[in-house]
C-alpha cells in the first residue's frame, strides 16, 4: 500500500495540466499545487508545514523552463521531492543539539557524501544515503559512557524502542557497502563518520517506576537480545536509578547506557519535571522522544512540546509500518526543529532503522 495514495493521484492529475508546455506558469501549476495541498492535509501534515512545502514547490517551479529530456510533471515532482527532503532534514543531521543550524535548507554536505544528485533530475534513492541518525558517542577514551535518554507518552513504543536501540547499537555494522564497489577510503570518507557508531557495549536502564510491568518487559527484552538491564524496582527515584546505572556502566566497562523513562497518558508538568531531573542527574548525550506515527501531526506538536519543556535532540518515530498517511514523518522536523533519527517498522527488536529522508520522500511520492 502506498503511503500517500492521495498524493500520488494528485500528481497524476498534475500531469494532465502540463501537457506540452515549455514554461511553468502560475496558471499551469496552480491546480497542481491545490491538489497537492489537499493531499498533504488529508495525510495529516501540519498546516504550516503543508503551506511551506507548497510555497517551496511554487518557488522552485514558477517561471522555470522545462528542462530538456524531462516532462513538466517530472520537474514538478522533483521540486516536490526536494522540498520534502529539505523539510525532513535532507542529509546528515549534526550530533546532539547542533542540528538547528541546518534549517536554512543547505544540505550540500549531504549531497556530496550521499546522493550527490540534488540538482539533477534523478531522484531514485541511492543505496548509500547518509542517515540522519547520527548519535553522539563519547568514544572509549572519554570518561564515562554515552547516555541516551528515551522519553515519550505511554504506549508510544518507548520500552520496545529501548530494546531495539540497544540491539542496534550493540550489533556490528553490516558491511553492505562492500558490495557496492566502494573503496575503503571512499567508504570511510562518505559514511563511517556519519553512521552511528555501533558494536557498543550497552547497558539498559529501567527508570519507569510507575509500571512494574515496564521493568519486567525491559528485563525480558534485555535477555532476548543479550543486553544487561539495570533496575532497582519501583521504590527508588528515577533520577537516582539513572545515576546509579551510569555509575555501574562506568565501573563495568559499558560504553553506552540507554535509559527507559516513564510515560504518561498525557503531557503533564510532573512528567516533564521528572525528565528534567533525570537529565540533570545523567547529562545525556542524546534525549530522544519516542513518538507514534499513527498520531499524525499530533506527533509533531508533541515533539515541540517535549523539546520546549525538557530539551530533546531528536525523535524516534515508531509504528511507521502501520502508518498509511505520513503526516508525522513529514511534519516533525518542520514543527519542532528536531530531526527524526530512527524509525520503528515493526514489533520485533530488529525492526529499527535509521531515518533516511530521501527514502521517505521517494516513498511518499510513490
Ligand atoms: P511504551 O508504553 O511507550 O513503553 O510502549 P511499548 O514499548 O510497550 O509498546 C506499545 C505497543 O506498541 C506494543 O504492543 C509494541 O509491540 C508496539 N510497537 C512498538 N513499536 C512498534 C513499531 O514500530 N511497529 C509496530 N507495529 N508496533 C510497535
UniProtKB/TrEMBL annotation:
GO terms for cellular component: signal recognition particle, endoplasmic reticulum targeting. This is signal-recognition-particle GTPase. One of its GO terms (molecular function) is hydrolase activity. Keywords: Cytoplasm, GTP-binding, Hydrolase, Nucleotide-binding, Ribonucleoprotein, RNA-binding, Signal, Signal recognition particle. It catalyses: GTP + H2O = GDP + phosphate + H(+). It is found in: Cytoplasm. Residues 97-127 are annotated as: Disordered. It comes from Cyclostephanos tholiformis. It is an enzyme of class 3 (hydrolase). Its EC number is 3.6.5.4. The chain holds residues 70 to 435 of 627 of the full protein. Residues 97-107 have a biased composition (Acidic residues). Residues 339-352 form the SRP54-type proteins GTP-binding domain. Belongs to the GTP-binding SRP family. SRP54 subfamily.
Amino acid at each position: 500500500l502506498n503511503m500517500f495514495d492521495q498524493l500520488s493521484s494528485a500528481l497524476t492529475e498534475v500531469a494532465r495540466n502540463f501537457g506540452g508546455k515549455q514554461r511553468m506558469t502560475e496558471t499551469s501549476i496552480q491546480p497542481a499545487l491545490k491538489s497537492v495541498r489537499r493531499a498533504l492535509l488529508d495525510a495529516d501534515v501540519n498546516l504550516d508545514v503543508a503551506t511551506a512545502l507548497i510555497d517551496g514547490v511554487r518557488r522552485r517551479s514558477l517561471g522555470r523552463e522545462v528542462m530538456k529530456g524531462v516532462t513538466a510533471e517530472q520537474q514538478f515532482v522533483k521540486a516536490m521531492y526536494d522540498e520534502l527532503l529539505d523539510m525532513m532534514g535532507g542529509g546528515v543531521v549534526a550530533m546532539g543539539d547542533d542540528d538547528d543550524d541546518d534549517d536554512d535548507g543547505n544540505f550540500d554536505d549531504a549531497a556530496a557524501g550521499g546522493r550527490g544528485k540534488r540538482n539533477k533530475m534523478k531522484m531514485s534513492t541511492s543505496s548509500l544515503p547518509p542517515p540522519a541518525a547520527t548519535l553522539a558517542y563519547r568514544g572509549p577514551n572519554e570518561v564515562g559512557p554515552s547516555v541516551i535518554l528515551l522519553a515519550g507518552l505511554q504506549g508510544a513504543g518507548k520500552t520496545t524502542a529501548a530494546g531495539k536501540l540497544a540491539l542496534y547499537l550493540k550489533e556490528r555494522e553490516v558491511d553492505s557497502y562492500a558490495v557496492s564497489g566502494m573503496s575503503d577510503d571512499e567508504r570511510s570518507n562518505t559514511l563511517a563518520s556519519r553512521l552511528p557508531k555501533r558494536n557498543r557495549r550497552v547497558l539498559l536502564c529501567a527508570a519507569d517506576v510507575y509500571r512494574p510491568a515496564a521493568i519486567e518487559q525491559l528485563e525480558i527484552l534485555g535477555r532476548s537480545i543479550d543486553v544487561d538491564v539495570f533496575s532497582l524496582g519501583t521504590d527508588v527515584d528515577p533520577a537516582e536509578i539513572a545515576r546509579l546505572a551510569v555509575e555501574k556502566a562506568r565501573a563495568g566497562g559499558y560504553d553506552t547506557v540507554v535509559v527507559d523513562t516513564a510515560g504518561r497518558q498525557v503531557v503533564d508538568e510532573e512528567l516533564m519535571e521528572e525528565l528534567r531531573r533525570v537529565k540533570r542527574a545523567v547529562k545525556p548525550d542524546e534525549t530522544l522522544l519516542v513518538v507514534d506515527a499513527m498520531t499524525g501531526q499530533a506527533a509533531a506538536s508533541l515533539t515541540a512540546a517535549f523539546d520546549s519543556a525538557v530539551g530533546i535532540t531528536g525523535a524516534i518515530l515508531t509504528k511507521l509500518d502501520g502508518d498509511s498517511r505520513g503526516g508525522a514523518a513529514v511534519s516533525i522536523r518542520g514543527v519542532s526543529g528536531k530531526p527524526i533519527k530512527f524509525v520503528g517498522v515493526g514489533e520485533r527488536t530488529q525492526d529499527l532503522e535509521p531515518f533516511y529522508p530521501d527514502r521517505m520522500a521517494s516513498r511518499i511520492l510513490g
